[in-house]
């Protein structure tokens, strides 16, 4: 992503729930490549906070595209809370919806260190999210293009532009360090 600007069309320029969003995945993300790198650095810092309670280090931000403000930042709390749905993305989307005062987050973008799983990609669909930016791909559970692509399935009534691979190495490294320290190879899924 060497271009200075990833963006162009705003989500509001097209009808809500349009079955035919822009052809280019990054067209509706009003965020420069430099801004995406900086946001991913913040998401990585959030991911590391999960280590304090022995959760898999995944961090997520939700960014409001109208003004670029970060309105939510959360990390994985599955172990801490014993809640199977307490993935960073779910928690961040819930916080963002409270701030927005609505479930509809079409003028928001999720920035997350690891590719969303089917649950989180489903939550992004349910919130009519304006975009997903992720770092490391997840070969075991990725649902934004790796195993499934819930962000761009023409059978669903909302498609989400996806930018993948932002600071992917750094995002993968924090996960690799976590699992190496635990000396545990996850059997079924990465998180
Ligand atoms: Zn998830």
Structural features, described:
With 191 residues, the protein is an alpha/beta fold. It is built from five helices and five strands; from the N terminus they run αββααβαββα. Strands 2-1-3-4-5 form a five-stranded mixed sheet. The protein starts with 32 loop residues before the first helix and ends in a 9-residue tail after the last helix. Mean pLDDT is 87; it is low at 1-25. The site of zinc ion (ZN) has 6 residues, from helix 4.
Biggest sheet details: 5 strands, mixed
Query: Which strand order spans the largest sheet, edge to edge or round the barrel?
Result: 2-1-3-4-5
Helix content: 25-40%
Give the integer mean of the pLDDT values: 87
Number of strands: 5
Based on secondary structure, the structural category is alpha/beta
H/E series, N to C? HEEHHEHEEH
Features:
alpha/beta; five-stranded mixed sheet; 30% helix; globular; disordered N terminus; binds zinc ion
In short:
This protein has 191 residues and is of the alpha/beta class.
Show the helix and strand layout.
Elements: H1 33-49, E1 59-64, E2 70-75, H2 78-81, H3 88-100, E3 108-114, H4 118-126, E4 131-136, E5 162-164, H5 168-182
Parallel strand pairs: 3-4, 4-5
Antiparallel strand pairs: 1-2, 1-3
Bound molecules: zinc ion.
Zinc ion (ZN) binds at residues 87, 89, 116-117, 119-120.
């Amino acid at each position: 992503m060497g271009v200075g600007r990833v963006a162009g069309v705003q989500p509001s320029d097209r009808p809500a729930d349009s079955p035919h969003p822009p052809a280019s995945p990054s067209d509706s993300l009003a965020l420069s490549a430099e801004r995406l790198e900086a946001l991913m650095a913040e998401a990585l810092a959030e991911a590391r906070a999960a280590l304090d309670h022995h959760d898999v280090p995944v961090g997520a931000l939700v960014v409001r595209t109208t003004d670029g403000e970060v309105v939510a930042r959360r990390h994985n709390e599955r172990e801490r809370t014993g809640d199977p749905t307490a993935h960073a993305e779910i928690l961040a989307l819930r916080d963002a919806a409270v701030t927005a005062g609505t479930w509809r987050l079409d003028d928001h973008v999720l920035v997350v260190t690891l590719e969303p799983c089917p649950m989180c990609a489903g939550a992004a669909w349910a919130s009519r999210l304006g975009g997903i930016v992720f770092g490391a791909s997840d070969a075991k559970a990725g649902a934004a293009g790796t195993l499934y692509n819930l962000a761009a399935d023409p059978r669903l009534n909302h498609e989400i532009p996806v930018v993948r691979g932002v600071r992917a190495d750094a995002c993968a490294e924090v996960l690799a360090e976590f699992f190496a320290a635990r000396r545990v190879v996850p059997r079924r899924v990465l998180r």
